[in-house]
Amino acid sequence: MSWLVTGGAGYIGSHVVRAFEEAGLEAVVVDDLSSGHREFVGPETPFVEGTILDTDLLARACKEHAVEGVVHLAGFKYAGVSVQRPLHTYNQNVTGTVSLLDAMAQAGVEHMVFSSSAATFGTPDVDVVTETTPGRPESPYGESKLVGEWLIRDQAVATGLRHTSLRYFNVVGSGSDDLYDTSPHNLFPLIFEALIEGRTPRINGDDYDTPDGTCVRDYVHVSDLADAHLVAARRLAAGDALEPVYNLGSGDGVSVRQIMDAVRDVTGIDFTPEIGPRRPGDPARIVASGELAARDLGWAMRHDLRDMVASAWRARQHAAGA
Length: 322
What we know:
This protein is an alpha/beta fold. 40% of the residues lie in helices and 16% in strands. One of its GO terms (biological process) is galactose catabolic process via UDP-galactose, Leloir pathway.
């Protein structure tokens, strides 16, 4: 039996695949390589190139590889860009999830771990969100993730699907030097590419209602995140009861300016960030409690901010052959 990982050639997905395989669980990757990288998947791992919109392809993959569960990571993940591309976002994240759930039902796959997002909360009216905080997303991306949770919930009522959804926000760092974040929209790659090219990194807005005026987020290390997916999958397969949703947060937050300071310290490159306009769809602050996930999934922040920056920078330098 194996687990299908959609988006398994991406930054987060490839870390999840490695966590599964290191724990002795077989993984099968489905990825259309629109943002993933074939070299992020080892040659021994079954790889199916294709889109999650192709229901028949997914159903065949589940049957051929005796899939018992799915970790669903594939999707369009950029909140700011989703404001300009709402139809594309809904097609990838909502229609794609419908297609996957259909394929799972056809193949008799009964377990699902869904990669959701703290973007489902929008700008909450509490300092630290919990699983019971109402969802008020402020971008098509956040809305599409909330709809994804609803789809999975309703399918579970209809078919008995056993599932959980993991909500998190900024995933950073690297668990292996050959795996790194290549997104053109995420903060760490944007900072690193600017420094490598001799440009000054930019902060998108410094007039938010936060202590230093820049956005505050939970930043979580990708290896900690991958471990949580692994534990969730194992517990579902074992028949254990899990909550429908878990927040993978720190209970605290880090601002964009604090990230810039940490990068300057780790890299030894002195710079003063430029200040640009706000990005549409960016809430001022989202910080989540991880207490429920700690109870049920062994969730813990095992890496501090310096670890996150240092591992990410080391992997980016490795990619450049430095």
